[in-house]
Amino acid sequence: MTAQDGALTANMASGWILEEQTFHPEFMAKYEAIFSQGNGYLGQRAALDEQYEGQTRNLFVSGTFDRFHDSEVSELPNLPDVTNIGLRIAGQNFSMLIGQVETYSQKLNLYNGETTRQVCWVSPQGATLKMTWRRTVSMSDVHLLDSQVILTTDKSVEVVITSGIDGRVTNSGTQHTVEGHARVYDGSIMEYPCRTLNSGIQVMIHASHRLLVDGVEESIPMKIVTSRRYLGGEYTLRLEAGQTLVLEKLASVYTGRDMEYRELRAQEANERVFIDSLERFRGVIGNSYADVLEASSKVWTRFWERHDVQLDSEDTRDQVAIRFAIYHLNIMTNHRDSRMGIGAKGLSGEGYKGHSFWDTEIFIFPFFLFTWPEVGKNLLEYRYWTLSGARALAQKRGYQGAMYPWESAWIDDGDVTPDNLGVDLVTGKILPCETGEIEHHVTADIAFAVHQYYNATGDMEFLERCGFEILLETARFWSSRVEWNKNENRYEIRHVIGPDEYQVDVNNNAYTNYLAARNMELGLRALDRLDQNPELRQRLDAKIGLAGLRERLRERLDRMYLPQPDPESGIVPQFDGYMDQRQLDLTCYRNAQSVGEILKDYNFQMLRNFQVAKQADVVQLMFLREELFPGDLRRKNYLYYEPRTLHDSSLSKAVHSILASDLGMMEEAYEMFRGAAETDLGPEPDSSEGGIHSANMGGIWQAAVMGFGGMRVINHTLRIVPHLPRAWKRLNYRFCWQGNPLEVTVTQEQVRVFNGGPPIVVETIRGPMELSAQRETVF
């Protein structure tokens, strides 16, 4: 598909620009998502300023979860929109569906987070107008959003601008806010207060406008326009031929759940934000669009200096794809407030209701762990704040300890997994959401991430404050979750779903069993550590009870069933009975343009008869626990399972790329990397409709840095053993290991590592090597 067909193009010169060169309405949802802007506190979907059928205007503030009704689960509410700006030119509303569009370009600048749209439009009345729309979401002041419209005409025309704050937005039809008393201050400052329905969070939105003609600010009176759930203003002026009109719209968003109010009671926080928000908006109202953009750009520049991954590839899309992933990892994650998780669609769309999954710990967390450990710690603290809910869920299901829910939202919400997934396309019956009932590996995934964090940072303060309790309570859960099989004389885990969600209600899923065993092992290590800190041990014993836990964990772990490779084939069975399932010709499904096509022909019950996987499962295990599986065994399992995998989850191809890279299968590794990159950046118009795939953003970074770049931690040891694909001449990345800033440059001939800290030893292709302090080492 060419750019003229609506596909995305990369600006080949800079490696920083994504561009849509032709307007096609069927691609609107895709570009709204992938061009989304944000700063971790809030996210704004990139809906076009003027109205079109099928648009989705989304404004999310992290953590403001609300539940519409007791029969529903909480979701991140769509807050009042500030992006709407309508233009009426000589009596005709501007729309790219009428008149003639002579040129069109919409761009996202990944370097500074700005979007721009340029259109040359001939109106039905014959006037030619050159228009530029610019938007930025501030990284400097996370409460600010700013827009600018620049308009030049070749004929004298009357221009009417309508712009405001629109509270008529919904989450796919569900309204989550109650409108307060909207008003206008000083004839220009719009104030729109609203409150979430059940969570009762006060939201305060302000907006103001500034108009200039040929660089001179105009004092054009605003006609106030109001209707139900809408507060707007209308400006009318005549623009002469050759004149340039500039409209700037500054907006701010504050809520009673903001971090500065976290110590206050909800009512007091709501009262405070009502007053504070207006005062603060008045303090910034004099800033121009250029001022806001400049301040935000400085923060972005500092971010890229630390986090950029640079490469020289035959395909310039690769560079843009990696930066696109890093850009979204940055804007989806709250950098300061550890009460906030990361949604499966980030802050770019309504998909998955803004809930957090295992995606965070296994796919997203490693990026922050190695490039921004402070934020990585915040993500783990989020799981600590939700520990009480995990305990409650374990008790509800008849287990001990802490069982993390499959889907999480606000720290007090507990389990927010929906009861059903829609309709079974084969039977027509309601499809229950069994992941919430039996996909339990998320608990072990969180414990795995806690251990990763301590391993990479040595942060004992976090371990003592939060980490030990997570490790011990999750280990306790698994000790109660395993079942004794007296015939086999072993502990098993029955009735689960592993990462492969096409295989439902299986016994002894290899990934789950190995990660659960690791979790119990980490629990034992935590107890050993506590023996060295009697005061902390006593405190934790009083809080969660430690008596008998060591003996219980050791007894379970010693008899835990871990599926072993078949002696002849070397294949680790994905679960009990997997090797007895029939094979199915998957050619048509693997080559399908969209995912999930197999569910039109087979439901989950039917798929249990076939060797077919939605995503990496055993392959995922062999990536995370590489030290347990020799290279020849990993190769056999990769070659066995990959042809049986549909990659119908965005979590799949990046992991396959990493393992293929480890095995020296570079063409396949690169193909899988490209497939991961195309998940959001490919030509399919519906691929990102509900938002970008946040886990895949982390997966792309891992494929580049941990796969091709060869950075890995094995048995507590840092390893740097790169494998560049043939298309890449050079790869450069930065990361942090136990406080040491490291910079790695890889070419086809050599590896150069600059160590910005004290001497450390790393494992290389030549064996252990010491990296001298403040020096570059070449190997």
TrEMBL record:
Q: Which UniProt keywords apply?
A: Glycosyltransferase, Transferase
Q: Which GO terms describe its molecular function?
A: carbohydrate binding; glycosyltransferase activity; hydrolase activity, hydrolyzing O-glycosyl compounds
Q: Which domain of life is it from?
A: Bacteria
Instruction: Enumerate the spans annotated as Glycoside hydrolase family 65 central catalytic domain.
Output: 323-702
Glycoside hydrolase family 65 C-terminal domain mapped to chain residues: 711-762
**Binding residue positions for substrate:** W358, D359, K614, Q615
Domain Glycoside hydrolase family 65 N-terminal stretches: 20-257
> Which residues does the Swiss-Prot or TrEMBL record annotate as the active site?
E501 (proton donor)
Q: Which GO terms describe its biological process?
A: carbohydrate metabolic process
PANTHER family (UniProt xref): GLYCOSYL HYDROLASE-RELATED, PROTEIN-GLUCOSYLGALACTOSYLHYDROXYLYSINE GLUCOSIDASE
Family label: Belongs to the glycosyl hydrolase 65 family.
**What name does the UniProt record give this protein?**
Kojibiose phosphorylase
Q: Which organism is it from?
A: uncultured Eubacteriales bacterium
